[in-house]
## 1
Amino acid sequence: MTGEVAGSRCAENARTGIEVEDAATPNVVGNHCARNLNAGIAYAGTAGGQCSGNTCAKNGGSGILLNERAAPDLAGNVCTGNAGYGIRVADTAAPQLAKDNQVEGNAKGEYHPPKLGRRGWFG
């Protein structure tokens, strides 16, 4: 599934602000995800697409969480004040991360490092 999630305010949800799953590849652009119980934005399965210009702040988990084999392109996102990591890469997720993500002030750290053999942190 393609499409776009843009300009939304996703706050105080009982799970995650925005979840992208399975083989979906939407553009997730310009959203504000704050104070959600888990992550601000989460990807799982083989989900991908562009994730840019989002603000993920003060979430109970990580700002952006990538699980399973998700491989979105992350650029220009702001992840700050989250209880987890700013951007967390888990399982065999393989994101393409641009250098212009602003990730700071997260409780567990800025990035959870990727495993060797990934597409790499910075594109």
## 2
Amino acid sequence: MTCEVLVPASAFLSVDRNAARKPNRFILSNVSDYFTNIPFKQGDMNGIQYMAFCSEIVLQVKIARRANERLEATKDNFDHIEVWCSIQSILVAAGNISKILSPPNKKYKTRGDRLRQMLKVENDCVLLDRKFRNSFFEHYDSRIDEWFEKHPTGVYIDLAMNPSFPGRNLNTHRGYNSFNNTLEFRGEILDLDAILIAMEKIFENCKSYTLT
């Protein structure tokens, strides 16, 4: 079986050398042999499609890892912009994985169901809940509008560092607690370590379906 498809080079089992001279364009061979461990169903995604989704998940985990490394580095060399740049990268990567595994568009529900089954993702996986991420960055403009509709005057505190530190109890919209790697949004807490651990678990389960 030979298929032509645009996929990351890191995912290739075998590559046609002539095709490889063209940027981002490769020939995959023996794809069916590579995916014999996937329990296909009639009308299901094909092997290349599985590989494409798993490769994208692997990429997003690596992006989150790099962002977390930068975030850790700010504890020794504080950089306000780098803190929030790194946090945003982690949340966006987590959100991208979440949308692959649990698509907002119901048209692709079966794809999400099959990928979660294949990658052993439990229904209570922290990545599947996008509410906090949406409030924190994705739809923050709406949260600002909603806040000022109810509170047209008063103090507005945002992007606070360590708002949950014992004895401080800073009332902030968004905050980052470097002492325990958690985010705060108007009293709600998200554990970044839990997000990163969940990503790594899925990353490990992707290894059976793509070259990492």
## 3
Amino acid sequence: MRWLRLHNDQGGSSVFVALVVPTVLLLAGLVIDGNLAIAHRQRAADIAEQAARSAANTLDIEALRGSAGHTAQVVIAEADMACARARRLVAEYADAWLGSCEIADSARRSARVRVLVRYQAVLLGLVTDPDFTASGTAVATVVTSSRGGQP
């Protein structure tokens, strides 16, 4: 009888549940919120690609016409004008904003855009601050070739 009292298993499953349930919830949070982070990072990259193409499509008309005896050049307009166009495109998305925009090279043939997207974590937001930010960067270059995009 005394042996039964020493090896009592009452409450053993409670300890197991108390250790396993938080671990499983943490792993589920990492999987769900990790996938959410990847999806929003891809979305930020997609918006950045669109904004970079929009900025790169803002061509300098005077340089294109070849004024004052200069040869015609296909270059991006001034950074302010190109970035304003990119900013307008990004503003169409409620949860995104333009992080940075610049003409990426001295020849004014590439535009680099960084876009930030805000999202909320599902399970990890219960433990930490639920607001997270994903970013995406893209570069668009003006191509003047008529050979299917090959310079």
